[in-house]
Amino acid sequence: MTDGRGALDYRGAGVDIDAADDAKSRIRRLVESTFTAGARGRFGGFGGMFRMPAEAKRPVLVASADGVGTKIKVAIEAGRHDTIGHDLVNHCVNDILVQGARPMFFLDYVAFGVLEPSIAEAVVGGVRVVHGGAC
Question: Between 4 and 75, whose confidence is greater?
Answer without folding.
Answer: 75
